[in-house]
Write a structure and sequence with these properties.
The protein contains eight helices and nine strands. It is of the alpha+beta class. It has a single domain, classed as Aminopeptidase, CATH 3.40.630. The protein has a seven-stranded mixed beta sheet, sandwiched between helices. A two-stranded antiparallel ribbon has the order 1-2. Helix 5 crosses helix 8. It is globular, with a radius of gyration of 17 Å.
C-alpha cells in the first residue's frame, strides 16, 4: 500500500468528466489541480442559443474564418493569456493529450492569418464540456460559440456544459441548473453516440446559422 496520490492521466480525467467533476489549476502553482463539482452548473441548452441582431449582422459581414482543431495548443495558450489563469502546465499537458486522442477540440476564429478568438473543450458521447473561451476582438468568442453549437446540433449532441454561468454566456442563452439535474442530464448524454465532425468544415455562414439557431 502507498499514500502517494493517484497520478492524473487522460483516462482518469475522462472518467472524472463522466462523473460530473472537472479539474482547475491552482493559480499559485504550475502543477497542482483541484476538483470542482458546483452546486449550480452552467449549461447552454442546445435549442436555446441566443444570437443577437448585432452578432448576426457581424457574422454575415464575414471577413473571418472559423477552423476546428487547427491549433489546439495555441488556443489553450490564448485562453491562458490573462492576468490570472487556472490553465497551468498540468492542464496544458493533460488536455493536449486528450486532443491527441480525439477527445478534446478547439474552435478558432481567424482573421488576417492570426487567431482572434476561440474556445476549447472535451467531448464524451453526446456531451461537450466547454473549458475556456477567449476573444481578442469584438464578437470573436461569440462567433466561436455559434460555430460550436451548430457543430454540436449537427452531430447529435445533447449537452453543452459551460461549468459556470457568466453574463457573457447568459447573454447567449446560458443558464444555471442544480447539481442533481445536471448529473441526470449528463448520464443521459454520455452514453449516446455523437459526431463532432458532422458539420462540414466548409459549411457556409447561412448553414451554420441554421444549425445553431433553427427557426
Amino acid at each position: 500500500m502507498t499514500d502517494e496520490p493517484l497520478a492524473l492521466t487522460p483516462e482518469l480525467l475522462l472518467q472524472a468528466y463522466a462523473a460530473g467533476i472537472f479539474p482547475m489549476g491552482d493559480e499559485g502553482s504550475e502543477q497542482e489541480l483541484y476538483w470542482v463539482d458546483p452546486h449550480e452548473r452552467g449549461i447552454l441548452p442546445l435549442d436555446g442559443l441566443h444570437i443577437s441582431r448585432s452578432l448576426r449582422k457581424a457574422i454575415r459581414q464575414g471577413g473571418f474564418e472559423v477552423h476546428v482543431n487547427r491549433d489546439f495548443a495555441g488556443t489553450m495558450r490564448d485562453c491562458a493569456a490573462r492576468e490570472q489563469t487556472w490553465i497551468n502546465d498540468t492542464i496544458h499537458d493533460l488536455y493536449g493529450a486528450l486532443h491527441a486522442r480525439g477527445a478534446a477540440h478547439s474552435v478558432e476564429v481567424w482573421r488576417g492569418g492570426r487567431r482572434t478568438g476561440g474556445l476549447y473543450g472535451v467531448s464524451i458521447g453526446a456531451a461537450f464540456f466547454g473549458e475556456s473561451m477567449v476573444s481578442f476582438e469584438p464578437n470573436a468568442s461569440k462567433i466561436a460559440l455559434v460555430w460550436l453549437v451548430a457543430r454540436l446540433r449537427a452531430g447529435g449532441y445533447r449537452l453543452l456544459d459551460t461549468q459556470f454561468t457568466t453574463a457573457h454566456l447568459e447573454s447567449m442563452g446560458g443558464i444555471g441548473i442544480g447539481r442533481a439535474r445536471y448529473h441526470r442530464m449528463l448520464q443521459g448524454a454520455i452514453t449516446v453516440r455523437a459526431r463532432f465532425d458532422a458539420l462540414p468544415a466548409d459549411a457556409d455562414i447561412e448553414t451554420v446559422l441554421r444549425y445553431a439557431q433553427p427557426a
